[in-house]
Amino acid sequence: MSDLSLYWTPCEFTIDGDSWPGLPLIVDSETMRIEYVPTEFLIYQAAVVGKARSAHTRYAQAHIVLPFLDSLADKNVDWRRVTEEQLTHYRNALEKRKLGRPRIRRVMAFICRFLEWAHQRGHIQTLPFSSRTVMSERQRLSARGGEKTLTSRPVLLPTVPTDRRLPRFFTPDEQKQILEVLDERDRLIVEWANVFIV
User: Fold this and answer.
1) pLDDT number for residue 137
2) Looking at beta carbons, which pairs linking 139-147 to residues 24 or more positions away fall under 8 Å?
3) What are residue 28's DSSP bridge partners?
4) Helix crossing, 101-120 with 36-43: angle to 10°?
5) What global pTM score does this model have?
6) Distance CA 39, CA 58 (A)
7) Do 120 and 110 contact (CB within 8 A), yes or no?
8) What CA dihedral angle connects 178, 184, 185 and 188, to 10 degrees?
9) What mean pLDDT comes out for the span 112-130?
10) What three-state secondary structure class fits 113?
């Protein structure tokens, strides 16, 4: 069994003089040593990248990484030597728990982001998954259309059925219909929001 536990930084914890309470710390309960690399990654996401400023986001991200590390530790696998096959087994285990594909996709994408980050910093020798290049399109509420970009995604990420992908953006005709049924106040709110989105 894994002895990893999750702790949180106290109110007195600071980084460069700024208070950062509630940052996740992954700790080996037996030795009370911090698992440095996973903890550094989680703090990096919050304090450097800024994608986990919310306490709820930090909590969710920590509870993605910790079960993954626990799962590997239970099988006596060092996370630094995890293989693509073991990642696939972990994804399959999530599917057996009847989790929705969008959630599994988010979990696996975050795990792959952690492993990619660790690989870039030399903590692991080889990246344990292959990637494919896909064209992704992000549509906007405005009639200007969307943006198409090429992105690289791990092959082992499950695909999400089209009808369950979020968010769904409205076509220009649908936007017009929505605006027609709104009162003046609500229409102005939507139009102002649309200006700032563009």
Assistant:
1) 63
2) 139/169, 140/169, 140/197, 140/198, 141/169, 141/170, 141/175, 141/193, 141/194, 141/197, 142/194, 142/197, 142/198, 143/172, 143/175, 144/198
3) 4, 33
4) 110
5) 0.72
6) 11
7) no
8) 70
9) 93
10) helix
